[in-house]
């Protein structure tokens, strides 16, 4: 049975340091992908109160990303390869930090309230199998600290997906 998350810290770095081991323990004990992605999205939402946090997985048949477990307002269901920040992170196989979504060519606005964003690829056997997308209502909310910790999280997820 899951315990409540325990987060006492105030700084971003310290919150990640408290949160990640708890999420790791949670996902290591479960093989079901949807359950694990759902709990990771919920854990990140609870710890940081991000506006939107969730996953898109690669649909190889259609060459699109399709919406997976998330927390936040309803979102675009499908994103073509290379489109938006999510599709670009998939195409580039790289993390993309967008300090101001209005300045990202082709940004897909699922909500006008979202102002900045980070998208990380989940890579397995050198292929992108999903992306983690996090949105904030503040400009420039994401930096290298988010990138470092969320990269670690995506590496753990690639092992269980
Ligand atoms: N903004 C993303 C689309 C997904 S939503 O933000 C949840 C993009 O440009 O790919």
H/I helix tally: 4
Query: What percent strand?
Result: 25-35%
Q: Hetero groups bound?
A: methionine sulfoxide
CATH topology: Beta-Lactamase
Order of helices and strands: HHEEEHEEEH
What low-confidence regions span 5 or more consecutive residues with pLDDT below 50? none
CATH architecture assignment: 2-Layer Sandwich
Q: How many strands in all?
A: 6
Distance between the termini: 21 Å
What is the approximate shape? globular
CATH superfamily label: GAF domain
The Rg value, from CA coordinates, equals 15 Å
- Please give the oligomerization state of what you see: single chain
Give me the side-by-side strand order of the main sheet: 3-2-1-6-5-4
Class inferred from helices and paired strands: alpha+beta
Helix coverage percent: 25-40%
Number of domains: 1
Output mean pLDDT.
95
What does the model show?
This protein has 4 helices and 6 strands, in the order H-H-E-E-E-H-E-E-E-H. It has one domain (12-160): GAF domain (Beta-Lactamase). The protein has helices at 12-28, 33-48, 84-92, 144-160, and strands at residues 52-59, 64-71, 78-80, 96-98, 116-124, 127-136. The two termini are 21 Å apart. The protein has a 6-stranded antiparallel β-sheet with strand order 3-2-1-6-5-4, sandwiched between helices. It has 161 residues and is α+β, with helices and mostly antiparallel strands. Methionine sulfoxide (SME) is lined by residues 52, 75-76, 79, 84-86, 107-108, 110, 114, 117, 133, 135.
In short:
This protein is an alpha+beta fold.
């Amino acid at each position: 049975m899951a315990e409540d998350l325990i987060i006492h810290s105030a700084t971003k770095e310290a919150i990640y340091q408290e949160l990640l081991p708890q999420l790791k323990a949670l996902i290591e004990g479960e093989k079901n992908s949807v359950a694990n992605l759902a709990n990771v999205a919920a854990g990140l939402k609870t710890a940081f109160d991000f506006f939107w946090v969730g996953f898109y997985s690669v649909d190889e048949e259609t060459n699109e990303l399709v919406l997976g477990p998330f927390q936040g307002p309803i979102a675009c269901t499908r994103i073509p390869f290379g489109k938006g920040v999510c599709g670009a992170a998939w195409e580039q196989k790289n993390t993309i930090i967008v300090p101001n979504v209005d300045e990202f060519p082709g940004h897909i606005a699922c909500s006008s309230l979202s102002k900045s964003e980070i998208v990380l690829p989940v890579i397995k056997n050198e292929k992108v199998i999903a992306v983690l997308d996090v949105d904030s209502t503040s400009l420039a909310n994401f930096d290298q600290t988010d990138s470092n910790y969320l990269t670690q999280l995506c590496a753990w997820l690639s092992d269980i997906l």
